[in-house]
Q: What sequence folds into this?
């Protein structure tokens, strides 16, 4: 038994005491009135787990599936415990060999076993009460969901948005593996959080994080996405990475959203705007012609630029033309500039990635969300 990591509350040699005669004498009583097989607390609160019976011998506490990893133990002479756990010797002598978890986070969720002289007395499950976080976003902003635990989880959605109610699983996460339903696959990425890009009012609703193994509820997010000014259509665009090295391939993506307007026959493309404020499609630019691949549908486009160089510093715009409520309109995203270094130890060449924020004035709204209509010659 490795007890080197345990904290001592007496100066007596722990190993010798627990090998003494006290460890062979056990006295059991009827079930403790404090015993409960399930203990549920709020995140980061302390938790007390009780044994179902008294024991006058050696009491140990372990995580149930790790019986040789002792968290705390007591006998008639003293107690020991690992960091984050405690046992009271006074309470033990009074017949209450309970275990205290001083600050229970999600990693402490488990079944715990209390033993008396190596005989299992009781199993107690520690649960963390699921929390709820309200989130308020403006259309076009990204929704970031902290998954909170490292074990495999699934993300479910119960919609309250304008598109009508929807309930169901939208993604699963297992380590660095992410799988999402087709309608979410192009908008969701996994870093330290789960990010849903380009939100619209139809994304409003309750997002639930639960474990895959037993569907234990971990956390809910109540999300409200406010639409931008009535009668607007916008493009949200982004790069799938924050920084690249020369020789890498960059992936830029974008989608068109509306505040309830009907979008029909949309055509997506990627372009730069030159010094004369004229638009030129990326695929028509000589240095990009053999390095660009674009895939698009009616409201989404993805562009891959291969073999990046530190001279690929132009601001790249996702553009589109759509019939909006029957009227043809041209739309532009806010633009993305790639951050590209020369490699290990190389110098940074370009350092801007345009974001999306709430509308301020008409001019700012056009820059951030993409104007509904653009002057002739600009797009």
A:
């Amino acid at each position: 038994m490795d007890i080197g990591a345990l904290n001592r509350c007496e100066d007596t040699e722990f190993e010798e005491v627990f090998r003494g005669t006290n460890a062979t004498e056990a006295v059991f009583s009827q079930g403790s009135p404090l015993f409960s097989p399930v203990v549920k607390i709020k995140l980061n609160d302390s938790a007390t787990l009780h044994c179902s019976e008294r024991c006058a011998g050696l009491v140990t506490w372990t995580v149930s599936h790790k019986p040789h990893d002792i968290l705390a133990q007591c006998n008639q002479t003293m107690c020991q415990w690992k960091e984050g756990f405690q046992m009271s010797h006074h309470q033990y002598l009074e017949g209450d060999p309970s275990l205290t978890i001083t600050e229970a986070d999600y990693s402490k969720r488990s079944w715990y076993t209390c033993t008396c002289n190596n005989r299992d007395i009781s199993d107690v499950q520690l649960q963390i009460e699921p929390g709820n976080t309200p989130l308020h976003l403006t259309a076009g902003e990204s929704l970031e969901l902290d998954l909170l635990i490292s074990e495999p989880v699934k993300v479910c959605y119960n919609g309250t948005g304008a598109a009508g109610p929807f309930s169901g699983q939208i993604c699963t996460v297992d380590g660095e593996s992410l799988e999402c339903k087709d309608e979410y696959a192009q908008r969701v990425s996994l870093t330290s959080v789960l990010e849903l890009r380009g939100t619209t009012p139809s994304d409003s609703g309750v997002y639930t994080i639960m474990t895959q193994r037993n569907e234990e509820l971990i956390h809910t997010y109540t999300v409200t996405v406010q639409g931008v000014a009535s009668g607007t259509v916008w493009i949200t665009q982004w790069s799938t990475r924050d920084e690249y090295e020369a020789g890498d391939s960059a992936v830029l993506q974008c989608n068109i959203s509306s505040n309830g307007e009907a979008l029909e026959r949309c055509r997506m493309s990627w372009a730069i705007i030159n010094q004369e404020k004229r638009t030129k499609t990326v695929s028509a630019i000589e240095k990009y012609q053999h390095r660009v691949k674009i895939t698009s549908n009616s409201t989404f486009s993805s562009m891959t630029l291969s073999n990046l160089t530190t001279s690929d510093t132009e601001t790249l715009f996702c553009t589109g033309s759509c019939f909006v409520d029957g009227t043809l309109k041209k739309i532009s995203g806010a633009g993305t500039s790639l951050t590209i270094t020369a490699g290990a130890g190389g110098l940074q060449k370009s350092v801007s990635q345009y974001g999306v924020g709430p509308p301020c004035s008409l001019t700012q709204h056009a820059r951030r969300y993409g104007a509904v209509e653009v002057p002739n010659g600009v797009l």
Observations:
- The chain has four helices and 29 strands.
